[in-house]
Specification:
This protein is an alpha/beta fold. The protein starts with a helix and ends with a helix. Bound molecules: 2'-deoxyguanosine-5'-triphosphate (DGT), calcium ion (CA) (2 copies) and zinc ion.
């Protein structure tokens, strides 16, 4: 079995790490690293390209690297890599996967302190033995311990982020739906329920002739391994390591199959229990009447639910968080949709770390149907993000006013001036109140010192949402998917403060954030707190991430009226005004 793209990329990544630990020139290190990334994402198998003699067609791959890929495909190994392994202990290379440990430090720990495993590194950090070394301190020790914890979590739970899995699944599905045998198709499983990370991709296609579909599926160029290949079910592992299951069902059984394979398992168990009480057993193929064994087929999901006296339940709700009881009572939420969104209240421009100008962002938002936006670049203490000094902030306001006047005349589109201000480690905000008072809208966010003890980090959040100038708290928990857990916030305390001050909380649409997450969004709206679904766009394409925020909101039972950026301009302005600005 030839190595997969993922395996080849993995070896190149490790070689790059090893060369960097050895202190090789960065140019050489980068060429391995870039090639690893290209190979990992490449839509065709390296083994196929090698067979066609086309490895050098890959961008950035010259003769030397092509030979190395060829060697791995032919022998399953790379001699150069095997040699490096004899020079550098495995554990030293592994350290580079830990946030806070770069190649220079890994080498230093190894050479100066004889540390060659993660366990030894952890022990040394716990005992305070690293802080005396050059460039180290108590803070960097803590950072390393957190990095080790996060690394172990990633290894234990290799789920794929929604933002990676969904576009990939849609691409594959679109290809299958081009075949004449396919009648309809969709994603199912946790992907259809829009969980923030997914274990494997489940696809469902309706057809009376599954064989050609399965054949097309298992021979897709990105397939690394066929894990199962049958008439109604096949599973493959892609070159990037993600597993995809495809099931083909006859159209007259589409409803039961889709309902079954959408899950969640907990939701389905309850639905099956309800069916049993009515003398019906339910599986992916049909309902069966227990008295006479008669089958009842469901061609759509509505029929599955109506058979047991329920309205259709949106897939995002199917987590057994009370949706079945709500369906029974007739109190299912009228879930928000992307068409409800009128504005985007959090985005960045070239003034801080965004890619585009104010005018370009406004134009991009207008083309996507937004009616108004707020420009919220980073505040002054956000050094890496090129945060704005007070002088630059005020200068930016001039430009925002110009663009606003222009867009207003031309299109009736409005551009407002805001800021995403840092909630600093000491709990103060990054601009004084008299400056905040000059802004149209203020987002406050935690970016630094997220690992502070619960009480301390919670107090910072409370300070922010209690400031009368702060309209919205951005990505409240600060989680990064899949790498970083959110801050240890006392959410009930935060909700109480948000409620008391009528401050909105954000659902950040970036699939690396999705923060608030669904459970917390659900709790917030139960308490009557206002939400805001923003893109936090740093580029034009980021604006298209809005759908992930909408999915997350739907998982959290969110209805449009609770979301301030579904409101028309006059209602929004009246709210901001009433909050004391
Ligand atoms: P994942 O892939 O871990 O993110 O989560 P799911 O929900 O996509 O789980 P998966 O892929 O194992 O199965 C897809 C759906 O199929 C699942 O949500 C419910 C249904 N299903 C699969 N296996 C079983 C089972 O053994 N019992 C029941 N009741 N349902 C199952
Ligand atoms: Ca799945
Ligand atoms: Ca599956
Ligand atoms: Zn932002």
């Amino acid at each position: 079995m030839a190595l997969t793209n993922q395996q080849i990329a993995g070896i190149f990544h490790t070689v790059a790490d090893m060369l960097e630990i050895k202190g090789e020139i960065i140019h050489r290190v980068m060429s391995y690293r870039r090639t690893a990334e290209t190979v990992a994402d490449y839509p065709r198998a390296m083994s196929d390209l090698a067979a066609e003699g086309k490895l050098t067609d890959i961008p950035g791959v010259g003769k030397v690297l092509a030979e190395k890929i060829q060697e791995m495909i032919d022998t399953g190994k790379l001699d150069f890599y095997e040699k490096l392994k004899t020079e550098i202990p495995e554990g030293v290379v592994e350290m580079l996967a830990v946030n806070g440990v770069g190649p220079k430090k890994a080498r230093m720990f190894w050479e100066e302190a004889g540390i060659t495993t993660l366990e030894a590194l952890e022990a040394a950090a716990r005992e305070g033995k690293l802080r005396e070394m050059p460039g180290m301190g108590a803070k960097s020790e803590t950072k390393i311990l957190e990095g080790i914890e996060s690394y172990r979590r990633r290894v234990a739970n290799p789920r794929t982020p929604l933002g990676v899995a969904l576009p990939m699944a849609e691409r594959i599905l679109a290809r299958l739906l081009e075949l004449p045998q396919a009648q309809r198709g969709t994603v199912a499983g946790s992907l259809r329920r829009a969980r923030p990370t997914i274990g494997d991709v489940d696809l469902l296609v309706a057809s009376d002739d599954g064989a050609p579909l399965m054949e097309a599926f298992v021979t897709m160029p990105e397939v690394a391994r066929v894990l199962g290949n049958g008439e109604s079910k096949s599973s493959v592992e892609l070159q990037n390591g993600v597993q995809v299951d495809l099931r083909v069902v006859p159209a007259e059984r589409w409803g039961t199959a889709l309902q079954y394979f959408t899950g969640s398992q907990a939701h389905n168990i309850k639905i099956r229990e309800m069916a049993l009480k009515r003398g019906l057993s339910l599986n992916e193929f049909a309902y069966t009447r227990q008295d006479d064994g008669q089958q009842i087929l469901c061609a759509d999901e509505e029929a599955v639910y109506s058979e047991i006296g329920l309205p259709w339940i949106a897939p995002e709700l199917r987590e057994d968080w009370g949706e079945i009881e709500a369906a029974q009572r007739g109190t299912l939420p009228k879930l928000i949709t992307i068409d409800d969104i009128r504005s985007d209240l959090h985005m960045h421009t070239q003034w801080s770390d965004g890619a585009l100008t104010i005018r370009q962002m406004a134009e991009a938002a207008r083309q996507r149907g937004r009616e108004f936006i707020v420009i919220t670049d980073h505040s002054r203490s956000a050094g890496i993000a090129n945060g704005l000094s007070i002088e630059r902030l005020l200068a930016q306001q001039q430009e925002v006013r110009e663009v606003d006047a222009e867009m207003r005349d031309k299109y009736g589109f409005r551009v407002f001036h805001g800021s995403e201000i840092e909630i600093k480690a000491d709990g103060t905000l990054d601009y004084p109140d008299d400056i905040l008072a000059q802004l149209d809208f203020v987002v406050a966010s935690l970016h630094v010192s997220l690992r502070q003890p619960r009480e301390q980090v919670t107090q910072r959040a409370l300070n922010a949402v209690s400031n009368p100038h702060v309209d919205l708290m951005g990505h409240p928990r600060g989680q990064l998917i899949p790498d970083r857990e959110g801050a240890d916030l006392d959410m009930e305390a935060l909700f109480a403060a948000a409620k008391a001050n009528d401050t909105a909380l954000e659902i950040n649409s970036n699939p690396a954030r999705l923060d608030l997450e669904a459970q917390n969004a659900k709790r917030a709206i139960e308490l009557g707190i206002k939400l805001c679904i923003d893109t936090d766009a740093h580029s034009e394409s980021d604006m298209d991430l809005l759908r992930y925020g909408i999915m997350t909101a739907r998982r959290g039972w969110v209805e449009a009226p609770s979301v301030i950026n579904t409101w028309p301009l006059d209602k929004f302005l009246a709210w901001v005004e009433a909050r004391g600005k």
